[in-house]
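Onboarding guide, step 5: your first structure request.
Type a short instruction followed by the sequence, for example:

Predict the 3D structure of this protein.
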Amino acid sequence: MSRKDDEKKDRLLAALDQGMVMIHVDARRPGVLVPTQLRSEPHLRLNLSYRFDPPDLSVNAWGTRCTLSFSRQRFNIAVPWSALFAISSHVTKEFWMYPDDMPAELVQQALVTAKASAPPEGEKGPSALLREVVKEGASDQDPEEGPDDDPPKPVARGHLRIVK
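The system replies with structure tokens like these:
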């Protein structure tokens, strides 16, 4: 198992411990097992969660396997680490991308989009200030923020709920 595969495994397991996770997969890669109609997808998004109560969710050195529902039909999926190029957490909103494993079409599309949105030559485009995001409850306060700044808004509850 490579260092990158080990990192993907650790990130996926940590995100699953938090709640629902979306994995971004190139379904055309060798070893990927998904329904026939999805096998040609360069960017397939699959939701995984312990709350789905999957009897067979497995995350190991090879990749991940699980039974998921597609159009109300259960299907045993298999995704090797080489086919997984991003992981996003629905709960924490964190996103991890592995550009080396991204499909060429997605990389090309990103480059075209970036060129299209670039300002014309000679014009100054928008500028952004990048700064480190500090987790809630951290004691270090951003020096640019004063004590009078608005407090963070609470996370809104989803509109769906479980009815038993």
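Each response can be followed by summary notes, for example: The longest strand covers residues 63-70.
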